[in-house]
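Handout, section B. The chain below has 268 residues.
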Amino acid sequence: MTVLHTEGAQTPSVPSLELFSLKGKNVLITGGSRGIGAAMAIALAQAGASICLAQNNTSNTTTADAVTSLGRKAVILPCNLRDMEQAKAIFGQALAVMDDRIDVLVNCGGLLQRKDSTDITEEDWDNIVDVNLKALFFICQAAGRHMIPRRQGKILNVASLNSFIGGDRVATYAASKGGVTQVTKALSNEWAKYNIQVNAIAPGSVATDINTDLRSDPAQYAARVARCPSRRWGTPADFAGPTVFLCSDASQYITGEILVIDGGQMAS
C-alpha cells in the first residue's frame, strides 16, 4: 500500500470545550462490557460517539444499554480475544456495522493471572500474552490499514502500572503490558505522519472485578493504599476524562505517550 506522507492535522481553532467533542465519531472498543472499559465506552458516548463493543460475553448488555440511553448508537459484536482469527476479523466486522468508518479504536480487553513465576506454564504464558498483546497488535494493524488512507484516527491502548514496575506474582501480565507500551510507541512512530495518534493509559490499583481477590485481603488492600499518595484505590470513573481527552481533538499533538493513572504511585 503506497500512501503519501502528509503533515499532521492542526488542533482546530475552536472554543476549548469543543475540542473534547466526539460528535459523529465511531468507536470500536474491546473489553468495554465492564470495569474500566465500560467507563471508557460510556464516557466516549457522553462526548457524542457511537460505540461498537467487541466482547466475549454478548449477553452482557449493561454498557450497550447505557450508551443507547444517551441517544447514541451501540452495537455488540462477539469476539474472543484468545481466538486470533476472531481478533483479526473484528475490525472488519465493526466497519460493516458502523457505516464503513471507525474513527477511534480503544483496546481495553485483557487478562490478569496471579501465580508464582516458578509455576507458570507455557499455556499460562500464551493465554495472557495472546489476549493482552498479540490480539491488541493485530487489531491495531487492522485499524492502521483503515486509518492510514483516511489520514486520521485515534488509537488508545490500555497498558498498566505493571508495564513499569513489574508487580508481584504477575510475570506474564507485566510482560504483556510492557509489550503494550512498546507497541504503542512503535505504532506512534510509524503512523504520526498519517495524522494517527497512538497513545496508552496505564492504570494503577483500580477497584474492578479483575482484582476482587486481592482487595478482599485486608493486608493487601491496606498495603496498596499505603503505597499510593492519594491514599485510595482508583475507580473506573477516574478514566472517563483521560479517555475523552486522548480520543478527541484536544490531544491532537500528543502521540506515543503512556499516561499513568495511579493516584501518584509511580511518582512516590
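Note. Residues 16-208+235-261 form a domain with the Rossmann fold fold (CATH 3.40.50.720). Compare this with the example in section A.
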